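Teaching assistant's notes for section 4

Start the section by putting this record on the projector. Ask students to predict, before seeing the second block, whether Tat pathway signal sequence domain protein will look compact or extended. Collect guesses on the board.
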Amino acid sequence: MAARKCPFRHPATFLDLPSLRKLLDLRASTPTEQELDIRVHHPKEMNIVVHVSRRTVLTSALTAGAAALVPRDAHAAVPAATPPPVLRSHDPVELRWLDRDTPATLAGGTTWGVPWPRGAFSPDQQFSLSTAAGEAVPVQTWPTAWWPDGSVKWTAHAVSEDAPRAETYRLGAGRPATGAHAIAVRESAAEITVDTGVVRVAFARHGNQVVRSVRRGGVVLAHSGRLVVSRQDKPDTDGPQAIRFESFTGSVSSVVVEQSGPVRAVVRVEGKHRKGSREWLPFVLRFSLFAGSDGIRVVHTFLFDGDEERDFINGIGVRFTVPMRGELYDRHVRFAGTDGGVLSEAVRGITGLRRDPGAAVRRAQVAGEALPDPATWDQRVTSRLHWIPAFGDYSLSQLTAQGFEIRKRTGKGHSWLRVDDGERAAGLGYVGTPSGGLAFGMRNFWQLHPTELEITGAATEEAEATVWLWSPRAGAMDLRFYHDGMGQDTYPEQLDALEITYEDYEPGFGTPYGVARTSELMFWALGATPTAERFTELAAANSAPPLIVSSPEHNHAAGVFGSWSPVDRSTPARATIEDRLDAIHSYHQDQVDQRSWYGFWDYGDVMHTYDVDRHQWRYDVGGYAWDNSELSTDLWLWYHYLRTGDAAAFRLAEAMTRHTGEVDVYHLGVWKGLGTRHSVLHWGDSAKQVRISNANYRRFYYFLTGDERTGDLLHELVDSDRTYLVLNATRKIDGSTGPYDPDPTALPFGTTTDWGAVAGAWLTEWERNGDPDARKRLLASARSIAALPNGWVQGGTTYDLTTATFSSGPERTVSIGSLSSVFGLIEVMTELLDLVDEPEVEARWVEFCRLYNGTAAEQQAVTGASWGSLNLRQAYSRATAYAAVRLDDDTLADRAWQELRTGHAGYPDGHDWGTRRIEPPRVLHPVDEASFSTNASAQYGLAAIQCLSLVGDRLR
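Reveal the predicted structure now:
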């Protein structure tokens, strides 16, 4: 197992409050800022020791997992006060491909995560992988999370393209097999070189070439890999008289080797796009290379730090130069179309001519092979080759989700010829010769339109291959706010407007400054022009990279992610609920395609609320438009995948994580760490909150795949509570109109929606990196909430940023809202209380769970006041179920099922669970509609899933 490495953290800068304000003013006015790690005061050291819970676990999952454990050494990084874990035994785990079918090829390789029950393995445990038939598979392993006792909770694994292929595999303790190839990484002052045994890739440490060269067998197949961006100062849509254009190239500032084999190497590259004195659009690239593979996977992230009123991006891409060796008739172009289709062309075609060069010649060119000696051709062709046009430029542009077009031309200054078109391209191209070339592509190519694959100069000595994440053939990217404010200049006006469109508008808050987008690209340095069949295999791997997964049963038995259980239709009552869960999930999944929720900034999100009169989701009505994780849609989709193991469910949740973690969250600027509430534009609403940036929503994807970019997002959120020094989240509630002058020891930071999100970030950081400060802040804050006179419903609380503790007056008061626990608080508390032994915290949390749907008399008896008429009672049935298990109370368990069935603010038993087909001309095209809303579906899904797991034995 690879040694554990904690990610680099910038040293903290400690400032007094006036200095902090000056710095924040500077940061707000500087377009190209230097990000700093700011703390108002160093947190006091706290002597907190985490104990392993001695309580009975919530579900049979952990009990089942405890029967499968292997003795190993304790984790060396565990504090001395923590005793070594008691390790038991664990049998090998069966793994399979997510999409069930054994893939023909991989996207260079594949990386996946596997959970282990507490106490199963020590961090230095080695793992071996084999096919079901017993053939050894070289595998690389590294831990990604630990249990409090120091045993490994999650491991990530990687195999390469040349690994033996099988339907299923077995992963268990043992020495990993050695492959025919091993990654070799060499570092110098000027560059980093990664050799897979098949290709050798050189990364520049500085300059505007990210990749200096890609060699295969000593031959340079591609070089000068670089990032390109163009902007214009005015939008196309306003009919400007004159537009000024500028082009920028990515400039490298940092290159780090994050993994160095033996199976997988990862190189992280950071920088900004530069022209002259201007640097903007920070980028983070991760290159993954696999032993024995010619594939190079790139995870490309850029952050928008421009001015949306004058920076209109009209092209952003990744470009390589490809040497073109040989005659023009031996230069080939390939594009993947739809359903396995391939366009195969030569720069200088010799088929379809008036004179026939010969069947063998024609057959070789179509196949992408080197043509026979021209002396063997019909000389009526050979003597006239120079009259045949050479088409050196090609383009496949996907400007909408419903159509792509392929064009070509002889060169710049000449017209384009239309070649063909189709609906949804697989997003892979190739340019090269029979002696080698470059395949280049982008995942989710049509979903993330407007995209393009472009080849230029193939008729010259060097071609250029560009993957355009935003095609220059599309209109320029317009990130401006969609209306002028309509006179909403004061808080009373904004609150009044909220009453009609549900949009929380405020001038200056609809900015995209600091949002990001991540795309996944693939490059293959091929030793020859691929056959059509081979190219189709590569295109499939590019579109849906094959992934290895562990089963729902194993994941459940490992005891991860709280209260859930695999699908169980063993009784009619269970089967009914399973059918309903499938119905709501299938409906929302199908709506993505029926409503075309695609596009560069949109793909991955879903809409919030439906308009039955227009038979349309309310895409244009304020806060009813894009969902932006409202009421934990992300959590619902991930739990559905965990239970079912369904590939389509995984892809839906994966796309949402890629979107909501990047586009809906600020990664730069004064609001860094905050997300934006639901709105017509993903960043449009003025409510900037941690409930949206929420680590609880991202951690599933990180642990299930080991994706490093998601790891970055999780790490970003560890200090997101500091942002409340900058933004008064309650400004419209308390009417604050003057300068915000916060006291860092008494911030307006909620104990429920706010704390639940940050607690998830601290919990994940502690699990991932053993961060003692994250653990201290997590436990100190939880203990302080429990110590409040009324715990999680105490009113008038404030937050001390320096100690991560809450306080209030000594009197019992009640302040409770229905949204308090529906942004991951219930789920994170379930996990936390299973990890630590905190009786006071547990008692107060169970009290909250019992009382939310309790009677006014019960609430009065405990907290001194009724909690009023609370909403979302169906959603809180899972809180009742949790209390039932902790208190061993069958009456509460029965009450939980009654709450779910009654369906307050959700779906009662008598709800219509079907869909209705709406046909033209009532709508633009046929669509299905149902009596579902995204919020209600998410909360019904979470409540039903957790009730089944917690109190399923009481379901009648």
